[in-house]
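In response to reviewer comment 3 from the previous cycle, which asked for concrete evidence that the modeling workflow produces usable outputs, we include below a single protein chain processed end to end. The sequence was submitted unchanged, and the resulting structure tokens are shown without manual editing.
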Amino acid sequence: MSDSNDASAAARPPLADFLPDGRLDDPDAILERFLDWTSAAGFSLYAAQEEALLELMAGKHVVLNTPTGSGKSLVALGLHFKALCEGKRSFYTSPIKALASEKFFSLCDELGAERVGMSTGDASINAQAPVICCTAEVLANAALRQGTDAGADYVVMDEFHYYGDLERGVAWQVPLIVLPTSRFLLMSATLGNTAPVREKVERRTGVEMALVASDERPVPLDFDYRETSLVETVQDLVGDRRAPIYIVNFTQRECAELAQGLTSLKIADREIRDTIKREIRDFRFDTPYGKECRRLIGFGIGVHHAGLLPKYRLLVEQLAQQGLLQVICGTDTLGVGVNIPIRTVLFSKLSKYDGEKVAILKVRDFKQIAGRAGRKGFDDHGSVVCQAPEHVVAGKKAAKKGKKKPGGRGPTRGEVSWNEKTFQRLIERPPETLRSQFRVSHGMVLNLLQYDAEQNLPERDNFDSLRDLIARCHEDDKTKRRLMREAAVIVRSLHRAGIITMQKDSRTEYRWVVVNDELQWDFSLHQTLSLYLVEALEALEPADEDYALDVLTLVEAILENPRVVLRSQIHKAKGELIARLKAEGVPYEARMERLEEVTHPMPRLDFVEATFEAFRQIHPWVRGDTLHPKSIGRDIYERYASFDEYVRYLGLQRSEGVVLRYLSQLYRTLAQSVPERAKTETVYDVQSFFRTLLERIDSSLLEEWERMLHPELEVDPAQAEAHRQELRVYELFHDPKAFRARVRAELHQLVRALARQDYEEAALCLRADDPAHRWDADALADALAPFHDDYERLVFDHDARRADRTLVRPTGTRTWDVAQTLVDPEGDNRWAVEGSIDLRDPERLDGPLLTLRRIGV
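The workflow returned the following structure tokens.
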């Protein structure tokens, strides 16, 4: 349990033990069962918790506005319990994937892993479960696409202050409008005045929304302003037994550099370090940043930010929950509800880049982060400490040394300074008022049109849902009129692009909008410029040799720039250019001029800019939107690099999570936003390459969930396995072209490893469950030895990956023979890898598909 009344999770009974054998609809009996559990678990409810639970059991909506640590999660758990008792479905939504995954595992512990699922866009686990943890955008899209059929009977919206977020606030508003039969629990520690939202929800649903609010913190906070260096401050806090300390940084680079700087201090004693060593003994630190991550954890120091792979963030959370990490260097996203026990929150600064400029923190952001301090059951108070700006600290040090000008340097250009009065204002002021941030997007319009088309009700116009959504949004009338005009423009642009077609129904006078049936079932337009992608694809020639790569270039152009990756590409390019110019004897001044011209790679830039300009001419809604031409995925594919190789090539070890997140987004856009009609065999090859690459990077969430499905946890693993098998069967066989492309991708991964003579990696590309065909590294090396007797090397390049070099031949129901030609420098190409695929047994659907029979002529 996160911010709740503390009791040992290991000692208390799981809430699942208190579920009824059958359906239970009596709210008093449900509440009694839940209170029996809280008593058995050793929880003493606060007044606000009791009030909120009573209102929820009475069938009302609830806004729960209480400080961090006051047990909002316990109230949410009560709502999930009510849904399970009634045989209904509940959703938990959060603003960030890390919080959704943390709640997922917490609910698995309490309710049983077979009853809980997760969907974050990147990961989907047990998606048909009666309790779903997801990001707010996932629920919003499901609500738009399915309406009340989404099955969201109860909805917990955590960190509801994101309702006022400029970019993402619409995702918190859509369910309130589109799900009139749902019951909502809106939770946050920093809401401010919620009367306008409550009034609109009550009018939409016809159900009262109760406000449960309190300013009383179970663990009070003290505040301190420090003018010592950051390292000195940390040393003092550790010495004063005020750890665990969460040090708030606002960039990933600052997190990593500070963590490294703190290794010189004695953060953890020998006993803790030995315990950490035992806990991580079997953990796989098998990526480029793994060694550094392990080293820092060994000192009792954790790093937690979006640049880490999910498995490393999850490990830091687990170790912190055991009290083994004394210091955690994290970005401000750690303040968004993730359950890491903290005694002291230390702000390294009070300013951050807000997407446009560096500015002082908003009161809401400050209070959200500061509220993480103090652990119920462990601390009688929490501490919030703020560092003075570096130039002030330097000036104090100079004064102590008796220098004549003790003031030190002032803030540099672009820096925003603060002082103790700034700190005090942030402590005393209330959070800013929440304001509606409703927007209309192509993805939203397409979802609503699909919903209306599938309802197929003759009395409804296909635009009714769209009009209704805008009419009921929480904006003023003037803004609603503007949104309606924007929606009309978007509909026309979708029609012009052939994504929707107009038809007149013979039964009525209505003109129906029909989504093009040539589009794949999961087609989406969630990127702002997805429509540009669809239209620009028409300008490409599928017969061109580089068609698939150019499709990839267009996909990348509509994705947001991962700035850290692009900076590394530029740095790498400059280094290579300098070395070449020096070797050529180019003078220093000329070298510097050439460096100014270096940018990250942008293939087909003229084509991209020309097609986008043509697109803007006929789509006035584009206005300030712009493309982001780049080559990250294309660069990886052309190199046919592994994830680890590319991370090391660009020196992105500290930003592995950024690379993973970008590639996940790239794969989803390629799969869902490129129409089927534009997907040639080579495009499927590219798509399968990224799927195969992503599957091998970080499966920690799925592995953790499957561990929780162990029989010792009193669940039905057979039922869960049957569900997973059903999903695997669908993913493998619903699209024959995609299946063949996946087979080619796996064969290419094998041949790539063989070409590099990395036989251990090659062995991982093969099935290991067939006793008649077991290949280890030595056996693979022996099989290829005759090839290397005849040829200098095994060639693996673009030509070697041609589709006609792969044979996939059906031999029966879910069985195939496969072969991959091995390319040699002489062009003889007599050798091949030969094998089979047998997927008749559902248990063989996991892992690599290929069983290798032979390598030879």
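The first strand starts at residue 61 and ends at 65. We consider this sufficient to address the reviewer's concern, and the full set will be provided in the supplementary archive.
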